[in-house]
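Much of the work behind modern protein science is quiet bookkeeping, done one molecule at a time. The fold becomes a row of whole numbers, each drawn from a learned catalogue of backbone shapes. The protein below has been through that process, and both of its lines are reproduced in full.
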Amino acid sequence: MAFDHRKYRPFPPVHKTDRRWPDQVIDQAPDWAAVDLRDGNQALVNPMTVAQKKRFFQLLVELGFKEIEVGFPAASQIDYDFCREIIEQDLVPDGVAIQVLTQAREDLIERTFASLEGAKKAVVHVYNSTSRVQREQVFRMDQAGIRGIAENGAQWVKDYAARYPDTDWIFQYSPESFTGTELDYAVEVVDAVTDIWEPEKGQKVIINLPATVEMATPNVFADSIEYVIDNIKRREHLRISLHTHNDRGCAVAAAELGTMAGADRIEGTLLGNGERTGNMDIVTMAMNLYSQGVDPELDLSRMKEIIATVEDITDIATHPRHPYAGELVFTAFSGSHQDAIRKCLAQRDDNDVWDVAYLPIDPGDLGRRYEEVVRINSQSGKGGVAHVLERDYGIAVPRWLQTEFAKVVQAQAERDGGEQDTHSIHALFDEHYLNVPLKWRLYSYDLHRTGDGVQAYVSVGENPDELMKFTGYGAGAVEALVGALTDYIGATIKVEAFDEHAMTEGTDAEAMACARVRVGEHEEATVALAGDTTSAALQTVLSAVGRARGADVQQQAAS
């Protein structure tokens, strides 16, 4: 069989009995390093131009990144030119360090430093692969030979940096393919590099431990990070950095657990672009921290602008279910979800701690609108439909009408086979409940209290010269009108459900009334909006009778 799992072997766990990371909580943001312009760029079908790199760089600066990897200048003329341009045009703000990548070869390191001449602050990131499979099958070298490559690279970086004393240099080393490297050997190589750089004497040093290929579960990665931190020399003088890829779909989880294991710094890209399945998504990890009340120290409030810029430059569409950033991530179609969201939002005060069912963060924090939270299709229920009416039109309907109208909307959605937007929903509500039958519009009314009841004088119609006039008596205006109409049509009229309320506060308050009325054999649900509650109540009854009369006419015509 071509699909044969037996060709693979499980990744060996780290035999560690003193692990501490499971008890840790991330209570502050790590140092972020954006690698979109290098690692992300080399994964694009059409790599960025200098102009695109400049635009992306400006976005990263605006978001708050203090370390930005701008390219591999010794391997790409565009990257070299971009480095020169942002330095010579003074486009790098104070406090921001640009980072470049180079292999541990002298000619590449020499050109790398040339590309950075005049930079105020820069990270030179040198790497060589240390994994067993690369040693044995790619380089065909033993451990001592691979360690020698790292040592030579470290010495060249130190020597060339000395030629540019006006730049604040930060040295960074990565044992590339760290996840495929024996841990004790990784420690040996890292120590050999720091023996040369001597961070204890003041040289700023970053040790980056990359999951160049994600090979194990995140807990195993965390174990490996904690192991290295526990065993390397000069830990107190180093910044431990992580660079996780997403081959197993766990890059964010691995970075989070690695931070719990003691890492200080995280490399990643906006929205996770990178080779193969991508890099660690900084947006997701930063927003995960944000959702726990931790300041991510990045401003991601302009999420739509971030997405638009990244998509335009990379030509990669953002999945609609992408965490925090996707178009549908705060959207509820499910009826029960919609109902829960609606109820939570109705009870929430602006000063409350965020605690809303199904919404881990406030969509408004990312520039999203609440209109995007509840959307209606055939899977939606009464709560969602009611939420849309109340949110967009100020129409709050009683529970019995929510249930009835939800069926109307669901049937329409099933016929259309798609989503029902807010205008479609309101049109359906208007058609089924608000529309007043011809000649049954309330024109005027006059009430006189007599004894224990009310004498009602009601005029109905569109034209003052062709009004129907009804007079009735009852305990209230509605009962009086029902009595008059019963005599007029010769059929029993019974109000089975009735709700009314003022829609807005103030002297010009608009009122709404909802009624379910049985007229002979017909049951009609109607809604009326008016300038006062009595007008709205009378109109609901008139609309129900008018519809029932129309139904009778249709039945007679059909028979």
Summary: The two ends are 70 Å apart (CA to CA).
